[in-house]
Amino acid sequence: MAGFAQAAINKINQIYDQWTPRLPAEVNVRNILIFCVLALLCIGTIMVASASMPYADRMHENAFHYVTRHSISIFVASVAALIAYRFPLNIWFNNTFFLWIVTIVLLAAVLVVGTEVNGSKRWIRIAGFTLQASEVAKVMMAIFTADYVVRRAEEVRSNIKGLVRLMVIMAATVGLIMAEPDLGATVVIALTMLGVFFLAGAPLIQFATAFGAMLAALFVLIVFEPYRFARLMSFSNPWSDPLGAGYQLSNALMAFGRGEWFGVGLGHSIQKMSYLPEAHTDFMLAILGEEFGFFGISIVLGLSFIMLVCCIRIGHRALKNQYLRAGYLAYGISIIFLMQILVNAGMNMGMLPTKGLTLPFISYGGSSLIVCAVMISLILKIESTTKDANPSREESSF
Most buried residue, 17, 41, 88, 301, by CB count within 10 Å? Predict the structure, then answer.
């Protein structure tokens, strides 16, 4: 089975090598990645202003309340990204156990002193701002898993102990997140860890077993929790209860329908006028669709997936040059971005149940924005330190 997994990975690499050389040699992946992130940030800031002003004026008597906070979050995110970039990669990889402990402490602190919103304790208030610990957990667990699959490579590829150890760490982490509860972050972290585990050459039977166990646990968590089951049922037919369980989704779908091909124009959305609750957060894509139509959605999703491809390309090159931890971290971050893009777009369009996952660099949310900026900073650090082939597998040049 291990040979099958490695053959699958080799086939993916072969397909990747067949397509990526078609890009012109002078194309700079780093510059493309930075351009996509900055473009998404600009679009996101404009849309936060457009979508939040009516709500902010009604709730805070200040139409620019969320725009101001979003601008501050961009500044903090830029500082955090610069600080993260200053650290050599080996600092992160040599302290994974400490980073995991910090993550566990933050997640536990949320349950004790966290702020409860809509029945969930997910945020810690710090100096007037809120920190969502599950967002921090995403990047920390990606770093932990990238180091783990290299440090225990033999166990990962040939021994069940590799999976058991990883599952224990995963269970301790996502268990605290589920206590908040936050099912969306739980799924993202679990899939990221399992994805990196499989890409590192784990036997297919182990991956399939862990994935099956995760699906079974997800089924139990949804079916035996009334509000989650109601969300699952409402997303399949939101029009059966448009003023109840299907309220958000039905209004989001009306926003898309009203936008048609090119939208009704910036600032002319009707759904943001108290019809779509807190439209500047999880349902930002629906307001974007109403104001800029299919054209606007295509631009945002196109930029998002180009950003994702750049991250994957940087990770692929790192692995080819024998920077294994860096390569797996880039793939882990890519999985996080992919999950958030797909889930956010899917729930806005009624293809997936409603979950609290933001669209990277577009949706309002300080913790998400800061963590996304740090992840891009790590990708850029990986790109700058893995250009040349590593003469040894020790990765001492990090």
Answer: 41
